[in-house]
Amino acid sequence: MNIVKPESVGLSSERLQRINGVMQSYVDRQIFAGISTLVARKGQIAHLENFGWQDLETKQPITEDTIFRIYSMSKPITSAAVMMLCEDGRLRLTDPVSRHVPEFKDRKVMVMRDGGYDLVPAAREVTIHDLLTHTSGLGYPSEEQTPLDEIYRKLFGRMDKDIEPVLEKWVLAFIKADVPLAFHPGTAWRYGLSIDVLGYIVQVVSGQPFDEFLRQRIFAPLGMTDTDFWVPPEKIRRFAAMYGPTKEGGLQVIGSLDGKDYTKPDRSHSGGGGLVSMLGDYFRFGQMLLNGGQFGGVRFLSRKTVEWMMHNHLPAGMHPNGEAWNGFGLGGAVLINPGLSPRPGSLGKFGWGGAANTEWWIDPAEELQCLLMLQYMPAFTIPIVEDFAQLVYAALE
Q1: Which of 53, 97, 277, 300 has its CA 20 to 30 A from that of 112?
Q2: Cα–Cα distance between 246 and 272 in angstroms, integer?
Q3: What letter would DSSP give residue 240?
C-alpha cells in the first residue's frame, strides 16, 4: 500500500510516531502479541505500522497482509449489502421481516413480572430497520442469569449439536424456535443476532448465496481479495493466532471462543461476526463509505444512502450499550455528543469494533479513517482503542 508523507494530508509525522511507542509497549509487556495500525486522511494512507507477532511460538511477525478474525466488524459490511438491495428497489427498511421470512411473523415479547414472566404479542412486526439498528428485540446468548438468556443458552446448545451449520438452516432453526423478543420492536436497543438474520434476508432477496453476493457486489470490485468467511490453505501462513491472558501474566494461544475452525470452508456465513479480513481490504471498504459510496471509479452506494447510514437512527434517550455519547446508524455507532465520549472524535464519527479487539472508524468531518487490528480476547478489557484514538487526533494539524 502506498504511504504518503503525513504533512501532505495535514498530519504531523512527529506526533504519528508516538503511536509506535505506545503500541510497541503493549507488545513488549506481553499484553498483546501483535498489533497493526492504519491512519488515512483525504483518501491517502499516512501511517501504517506493525508491531510484534502474528504467531509468538514461531516468531512470525505481524505484517500488513496478516489476516484477522474481524468478528462484529462484519456487521457494517452486511449492512452495506442490505442498503445495496434497497437501492436496487428490492427491499425497504419499512418492510416487516415476515415479508421475506414468513416464519418470523407473530413474534412474542417476554414481559417480566414477580415470580416469572408473561409472553405477549409484539406491539408491531419487526422491520428491516429494527434489525439494522439492533432495536428488534433479538439478542445474543450470554452468561446473564435471566429467563431469556437461559432460553438462548439452551437453544444454542441444542443447535450446536443438532443443526447443520448452514446459513438458512441455523437462522430458520432459531426463528422457528420462537425465542421471545426482549422488548417490543423499536422500544429499546439490544445487541445480537439481528445482522445475522439480515445476512439470510440478503440471500433470500438477492436469490444467491450470501457469501456470493458479498463477493460479487463488494469484495471483488473493491479488491478485497483476503476477506471471506474462511482462510484457504494457501493463505494459512498469514492467519494470525488468537491470544488471551494467562493467570500468571503474559499470553497464551486460545481457540476461537465461537468454536469455529476458520481453516475449513464455512457455510454458516454469519453476517454478524463471521468474516476474516486484512488491513488493506477493510481500508478499501471504509474509504468507499468515506468517499460517499464510491471507490476506484466504481459506485457502490449513492452519496445520500451513505449519509443516511451514518446518521443516528435511534430515538432520543436511546443509546447503544448505554453509551450516552453515541447513537447508532445503519451498521455502526454514530458520535452524537463528543463532550461525553472517553475518546476524541468529531460529531458524526461512524464505526464499529470486533470481539478480538479490532476497531474501525471514519470521521467525515476530518476526512479521516483509522484501523486497529489485533487478535486478543476478552474484548474491551484493555483501553488500547482509547490510546490509539487519542494519539491519532493529537496528530491532526
Answers
A1: 97
A2: 29
A3: P
Residue 208 has a CB neighbour count (10 Å cut-off) of: 14
What is each CA distance from 251 to 71, 260, 332, 377, in whole angstroms?
A: 21, 21, 30, 10
Q: Phi then psi for 52, rounded to 5 degrees? A: 85, -145
| Cβ count within 10 A of residue 103 | 13
| Residue 162, pLDDT above cutoff 90 | no
Q: What pTM was estimated for this model as a whole?
A: 0.97
Indicate the SS3 state at residue 280. helix
Which residue is it, cell 452506494? 301
Instruction: Give the chain's end-to-end CA distance (angstroms, integer).
Output: 23
Q: What is the set of domains in the chain, with CATH numbers?
A: 6-79+209-394 (3.40.710.10), 91-206 (no CATH)
| Amino acid letter, 179 | V
CA angle (348, 220, 54) in 5-degree steps: 75
Burial 336-367 (b: 16+ CB within 10 A, else e): beeeebebbbeebbbbbbbbbbbbbbbbbebb
Question: What tens digit of pLDDT does each residue of 101-115 get?
Answer: 999 999 999 999 988
How far apart (Å, rounded) are the C-alpha atoms in residues 275 and 211?
10
Q: Which residues pair with 393 in a beta bridge?
A: none
Give 241: exposed, middle or buried? Use CB within 10 Å, 0-12, 13-18, 19+. middle
Give Cα separations from 210 to 159, 271, 284 (angstroms). 21, 8, 20
Distances in Å between the alpha carbon of 63 and those of 25, 50, 216? 18, 6, 27
What are the CA-CA distances from residue 203 to residues 27, 145, 209, 269, 281 (Å)? 41, 34, 5, 10, 23
**Lookup: cell for 308:** 443516511
